[in-house]
Amino acid sequence: MMRLKFFSRGFYFHKRSLCKMAFTESPAKASLCCEESTEGAAPTYAMYEALKDSCQNNATYFQPDDTENGQRLYQGFMTLMDHIDTVWPLVDHVRKVAPLYDFDAASPGNGYRSFVSVVDSCVLHGLKISRQVCSARDALLFRKSYFVREIESCGQLLASLGTCLHHLHTLLSWAPPGDLFPTEQHSPEQLFSQADTINQYCFYGRCLGFQFNPSMRGILKGISICMAGFSEAYYSHGNLISSVWTGGQYLIDPEMRARRIVNISQSASVEFCKAFWFLAESEIMKRVPSLMSSTVAVNKLITIPPEPITVLTTDGKETTVLPPTVHIGLQGLNVRLISVNKRMGMAGEGSSNLPPADGIIFHCHGGGFVAQSSKSHETYLREWAAKLNVPILSIDYSLAPQAPFPRALEEVYYAYCWMMNNFKELGTTGKRIVFAGDSAGANLITGCTLKILTSGLRTPEGLFLAYAPLLVSFIPSPARLLCLMDPLLPFGFMMRCLKAYASPNTSGKSKEDKHKDTNAVSNATTPLDSNGFLKVSPSQEGVSEGPSSFEEVSPSDLAELQAHKSGSERRKSSDTTISAASLQSEHTATGVTPPEDKSQQYVSDFLERYVLDSDTDSEGRRIPVIKPNNKALDESHREAESEASSTLVGEPPLVDDPDQKDKRRIKTRISEAANSVMGAMSSKLAYITGSNTITRPTQDDLAVRTNLDALIARSPSDEFIFSVPRDPLLSPYWADEQLLNKFPPVRILTVHLDPCLDDCVMFAKKLKKLGNIVGIDVLEGLPHGFLNFSLMAKEANEGSKLCMERIKQLLDLDSAPTSDNNRL
């Protein structure tokens, strides 16, 4: 009997190894085999069958096991097989029709293909787990409880993807073949009402990042853990020590992390999104590009004062462009100049024999219209400047919700007009101008091109768009559904960013409302403020805006200060100008920090010295903190200002003895660090040992925590019903064909798993139909915003290199060959 069992197991493993050899390609590549065949695509068909065989083998093995985990494993494998039988015909139909929606045969990619790839990735994930169980189940230390959770999570994942496939079939019936957007008015509510609601938890738990490249999964998992932990500190549930402890739980408890992330996505305000994304602006992250990226000779901020600009139109007439005033009034506009070399005529860079470059890249950063800056995008901008050897001018436009549409667009247009008059000072002849932008920045440069065409000004020689949202609304499309499982751009984040930028009438708030939003749920109708995650402690209610001293600053106040860093608060024009601008360098060792960096320095110094202080305990009560020495603090601030950067025009640097300065700084920092640690420890010890009443959670509290799972039953669109104007400057996809026909050559780069993929594909199709020169690249396994991870992941770095190739083609278009299908 034992021999027979051993022989059967050996035969199974031999069969398993043969199956494994049949599909070694990635799921995205396998999904490209979308040929209409009765047997389906050969690699993926074998993959689904192999998973069923493996599940059947494991189910047969665990069926006699009468332990709880043994029976759960048996039921888990049987359930997984049922889901495979349900999902296969649905995904097979989508696989066959997906090629009809591509831009062309050489650029396969659309939302339908993306979901086929996601389902295939899920099957591969399940096959991997099932084989692990099969090979380890006879071992003495086999962990049944671990694999129970893994198999059940995989089953829930496949079930949720089955629901998504039902939605895709609905979308196929709403639009003719080839169109990814419905031809008639259909709301997200109509779509979600066609099938069961989607369990979002399974996408952010144990299976988080299953659809991405292996090099990205660890990064995305780390970001998700940081997001969940940051929300603890942001909403001030206790002091930092308890927040760190809870953050550590998100590392070891995927289910807890999933509930937290879904809750954040559905309930957190746009100010939380701003605060979390602004972590990329912290002092530590600011230093990463200079340490890891290419070295550049020029990296400076230029503050453009709000003055009228006279520019020439294409027919030689002069026209005056007024500075933007909408929403936040007249403000100076910051732009960043990055160049690998100092060039002749560059303002503030002394003499140089290197002639000006013929080209320049006009860049707009991403960030959902609400966050980030040119500084947080330096990771790849430095590489671009070094490899392309042309100056890059990146625009720090104002951010929503303080500055919604059309403020950012007007600022980008204004900066372009200023650039047209200052080519020499930027180190270029201006012979070739290429627009480049990612995410929200891609939307802005496309809208700016429309505005330029309308105004009769000189148009750029080319546009490079990276994962661009070109239709700013939640129009039902297959790719839009990808945000239901996106770790970087969850559904709630995307909707709140779009709402903050595109619907100022519904998102505009008073200062008091904005302050409350940083401590509570943004939507008053949301019933989630009692779920234990986003509830405001009594001590936080009514906190005054703008703390008067460090002893009153809590972690939530600090996050709020960072979140509210927008155009009106970080732009102050300089009194002294060079060619109508103030130039500020970040690479010299003396001088005064620019206004933008000064505010960041205060935040960074506070984080560094007082991160262990807290003004509330875990019950929301005030506890004493160590008040810093204001004199020493002011002195250290002055020192930081003199070390960070210089203003090439304006005040001379402060002069001091460097040895004495270093000694004072070291002594001050040691003293303050010791006081801060001892103060935090003594406060925590007093709280623990004090005569505080020990309270247990009430039945209502326990019921609320248990009912967190009821969130699954809510439609993800319930709280995001708002209207967006059909303005082509807001959504370039709606632009008039006569204007689009005048567009310069366009190069689009996006990814299979991008919620904005269909925007890019449909916009490229529209340009191609008009006879424009356009090309599109669709990369696999990378997330929206991958350029920000170009220093961390190999595939992201390769994607950044492809961006450089496409931009170079636009810069050298005269010598670049074009193909028959209008591709570059």
TrEMBL record:
Domain of life (superkingdom): Eukaryota
Compositional bias (Basic and acidic residues): 509-518, 562-574, 632-641
Disordered: annotated segments: 504-599, 617-664
InterPro entries: AB_hydrolase_3, AB_hydrolase_fold, HSL_N
Residue span, Hormone-sensitive lipase N-terminal domain: 47-346
Xref: Gene3D superfamilies: alpha/beta hydrolase
Pfam families cross-referenced by the UniProt entry: Abhydrolase_3, HSL_N
Stretches assigned to the Alpha/beta hydrolase fold-3 domain: 362-503, 726-787
Ranges of compositional bias, category Polar residues: 519-529, 575-591
PANTHER family cross-referenced by the UniProt entry: HORMONE-SENSITIVE LIPASE, TRIACYLGLYCEROL LIPASE
Name of the protein described by the UniProt record: Hormone-sensitive lipase isoform X1
Source organism of this protein record: Galleria mellonella (Greater wax moth)
Classification lineage: Eukaryota, Metazoa, Ecdysozoa, Arthropoda, Hexapoda
